[in-house]
Amino acid sequence: MQKKFKLISICALVTLTAALTLTACSSDREEASSQPVATSSGPVKISIFSNQQGAQAVDPSNPILQEIEKKTNTTLNITWVPVNTYAEKTKIMLASGDMSDLNLVMNVFDSQVVQMATSGAFWDITPYIKDYKTLSSLPNTVWDNAKIKGKNYGVPRPRPLEGSWGVHVRKDWLDKLGMKVPENMDDMYAVLKAFTEKDPDGNGKADTVGLTGQVEADAMGLYGWVEDVFNNNNGYWKLVDGKITPVYLEPTERKALEWLKKAYDEKVLTPDFAVIKNSQAREQYMGGKAGVLGSALNPQWLYTDAMRKIDPKADSYPLTYLTTPEGNKFAGQDSGNFGMYVIPKTVSEAKMKQILAFMDRAYQDDVADLALYGLPDKHYTVKDGFKAATDQAKTDNVPDTTNNLQQIIQKYDKYQRAYYNGIPKEFYDRSKKIIDDRATFSKPNVANGLISQTNLTNGPDLNKKMQDMKIKVIMGKETLAAWDEYVAKTKADPTVQKIIQEMTDAYKNK
Question: Lower Cβ count inside 10 Å, N or C end of the chain?
Fold first, then answer.
């Protein structure tokens, strides 16, 4: 049974240099937690290594960032690393040991992260969480799914359970071609073919493709939704006959590769799918050159707004679900977090507590709303509870700014992924309904929090080889018969069998 983190009252004296606002007796606890971090020598200086999702890094002079610093009484020195190179740069940063005070790792269970955490490179913040009102009030799932061997080695970036998985379709193109919203993979293929061959943008040119996306070195990336639907499974691991098994060993994975190979052969999949970058795939979709993109729910207005500069009727429509070959509705459920911020042990305990106090304050509504919406009355107005972006928000490029700031500052909100800065209320309401509908059938990832030591050592190389084989099969450089042989050989590999056993043991002991 999961245990809830409980807020406890404390009454302790600390020095001013500890810089905590949590130094009051229990009667003052709640009030103190909403106050800025305080020190005797001015704002707390915190360096941060974070992901840059927007086109531009956030300048230190940005008024939204400055207001966040004011409310948290901090000076933030942020190293913004573009998303396309973030995974590579993170590995280099961790390996060098030259870390910031607060460092975003996108994959909690990356082998390098796990090994560093368990060897003492990061602060184990588990004993401290209870001392911070906002952090300790995050849902149990958020913390539990970010644990490494039962301990929290970082502050999770909270995410709602619904809205991370998904695929977007040009609804206006469907309407123009007289097609319905796809419900299964046969429907989807027919849509891709029509988007490629029937001039959905009406410009008289054969210049559109059905499906775009980006693959990773060790996974299918933005095409992962295809595998998920065919496998009726969320993610890399599946419970098969009581064992936690890599899903690529299942016959259903072959079906997914057949579907993608056909899409490639018939040119309804972008021909450079194996090398295209994440940002390039998004630009292709937003630029009206592709009709389907694997994506989380919330960027729908980012996409639609960009598309409407080309076609005022454009509509990036997030699908509520796709049905599996067996007829089951499928959508993946999120883990409740997307990475975590680790604090290296080179940071003193007093400074570590200052950082936790900053994050506790940053996750509160008024600060988190700055990161999400911008400055009240200037960048948005509120009517009937809905925050509508102003013209000034576009002038100040607030969507780009907040897209970056949200990589650091988030509050937990069930409907968070329904919103994007500037989204019209009707689109927001549509997304809320998608979230509510998905919550009735979405599938969690069975392997959340499970760790195999053998997989940490050998898994990365195995995954890269498997991904390389997938790409070769899709592009016709290897046959499906060769895939079958490869799977049979991999399944018989003693190392793979050991990984399966360790993952299964971890599942049974969870």
Answer: N
